Amino acid sequence: xxxxxxxxTHIRATWSGTxxxxxxxxxxxxxxxxxxxxxRQGKFPCRVLHIGRSTRVVTASLLRVLESGEPEFNGART
Length: 78
Prior knowledge:
Number of helices: 4
Radius of gyration: 11 Å
Number of strands: 3
Protein name: Helix-turn-helix domain-containing protein
InterPro entries: HTH_17
Helix content: 40-55%
Order of helices and strands: HEHHEEH
Pfam family, one: HTH_17
Domain Helix-turn-helix: 20-68
Number of domains: 1
């Protein structure tokens, strides 16, 4: 079971509009490396933004996935 700091209530209260891939991956219970692998494959469970060389996870999408269990895939980045 993920740590309480990754509960939807805590995320809603403490995260801004986007979060890091590392923290979002922890919320789903897998490693940062696995998170980046899933992003490259277009299979990360929630929406991600690619801004220049930075990759950020959309907090609202993360919360929807954690609460519903239904993924929101982005498609592979080309």
